[in-house]
Write a structure and sequence with these properties.
By secondary structure, the chain is of the alpha/beta class. It is built from 9 helices and 14 strands.
Length: 286
C-alpha cells in the first residue's frame, strides 16, 4: 500500500483534486480530504494505492503543488492507529477497539471496530453523521429492507443490524472492504444479518431483487453520490429515506441538486468537522 498526498490546498481545490484522482485511471483504493489541525482552511488530499503509481503520473495530477508518495506497511499502520483510537459516541452507538471493551455504556449499542485497510472506524465526521441520522430514523420506527452502499468496514450495516435486529445488505466495490465487513459483522454477532456483497454501485442481483428499500445508506464521495442518484432513487420505497455522506459542506448544494432531479429533498443536514450528512425523502412525503 502507498499513500499519495498533495499539500497546501484550499477546500475547493482539495475537493476538485479528490474527484479527479477518484475517477482517474490511477484507480486508488480510497481518497480522503484532510484539514490541517493547526491551520484552519489548509487541506490536503490523501490517496491510497494498492500498487505504486509512477512518479510521472502523480506529478501530472499534482501539477506545481507540493506532494509526496510514501509506502504504508499494513501491520505497522494498524498498530500505530490503535494507539490513538479512542471510543466514539454517535447517537445511540458507541464505537470502540478491543482495548476499550470495558468502557462500553450500558445504554448504547456497542460496535467493536479495529483500524484496518477499509475506511471507517467511526472517527470520521461522515461516519458519525450517518450514525446520528440512523439513530434519529430508528426513533420513528424500524425501516426494512435496508441497503448500505459503500460499506467500508461495515459500521453502518452493523449498527442497523444491532439496533433493528433485522437483516441488511451491504455492498462495496473494494474486496478488502467486503471481507472486513464480514469479519466485523461476525465479531459483533451480526454475521447472519449483514449480507455483504462485492458490487460496483448497485450492480448486483441481490441488491435489485431486494428493492424497494425503506432505507438506503451511502457514505462514499460526492461525485459517486451524484452519479448514483438516478439508480438509488429507483431502488427507494416512495416513503423511504436515503442517508448520504462523504461530502464536504461545500458539496451539499450540488449533491442535493442531483437528488432533487429525482424527486428527493433534504429533510435534515448534519455537519461535523467540515463534512455533511444529508437525509433525503420524497417530495411527496417530506
Amino acid at each position: 500500500m502507498h499513500v499519495f498526498t498533495i499539500y497546501d490546498l484550499a477546500l475547493d481545490q482539495a475537493d476538485h483534486l479528490g474527484d479527479e484522482i477518484t475517477w482517474s485511471e490511477l484507480a486508488p483504493v480510497s481518497v480522503t480530504l484532510v484539514e490541517n489541525d493547526e491551520r484552519e482552511g489548509d487541506w490536503r488530499v490523501e490517496a491510497h494505492f494498492a500498487e505504486r503509481p509512477s512518479d510521472q503520473d502523480l506529478a501530472t495530477v499534482a501539477g506545481d503543488r507540493r506532494w509526496d508518495l510514501v509506502p504504508l506497511v499494513q501491520r505497522d499502520w494498524v498498530r500505530e492507529s490503535l494507539k490513538g483510537l479512542k471510543p466514539v459516541r454517535a447517537g445511540r452507538f458507541y464505537l470502540h477497539g478491543a482495548h476499550d471493551r470495558d468502557s462500553v455504556p450500558l445504554t448504547s449499542f456497542a460496535i467493536e471496530i479495529e483500524a484496518g485497510l477499509a475506511f471507517g472506524t467511526g472517527h470520521h465526521g461522515t461516519t458519525r453523521g450517518c450514525l446520528i441520522a440512523l439513530t434519529d430514523i430508528l426513533k420513528r420506527g424500524v425501516p426494512w429492507p435496508v441497503l448500505d452502499v459503500g460499506c467500508g468496514t461495515g459500521v453502518l450495516a452493523i449498527a442497523y443490524a444491532l439496533a433493528a435486529r433485522r437483516s441488511v445488505i451491504a455492498s462495496d466495490i473494494d474486496p478488502v472492504a467486503v471481507d472486513q465487513t464480514r469479519t466485523n459483522a461476525r465479531k459483533n454477532k451480526t454475521g447472519p444479518q449483514v449480507r455483504a456483497r462485492l458490487a460496483s454501485g448497485i450492480d448486483h442481483p441481490l441488491i435489485r431483487q431486494s428493492a424497494p428499500y425503506q432505507l438506503i445508506m451511502a457514505n462514499i464521495l460526492a461525485r459517486p453520490l451524484e452519479v448514483l442518484a438516478p439508480a438509488l432513487s429507483t431502488l427507494l420505497d416512495p416513503r423511504g429515506s436515503i442517508i448520504l455522506s462523504g461530502l464536504t459542506t461545500g458539496q451539499e448544494r450540488r449533491v442535493s441538486a442531483a437528488y432533487r432531479l429525482q424527486g428527493l429533498v433534504p429533510v435534515r443536514r448534519i455537519r461535523l468537522d467540515g463534512w455533511s450528512t444529508l437525509v433525503l425523502q420524497s417530495q411527496t412525503t417530506a
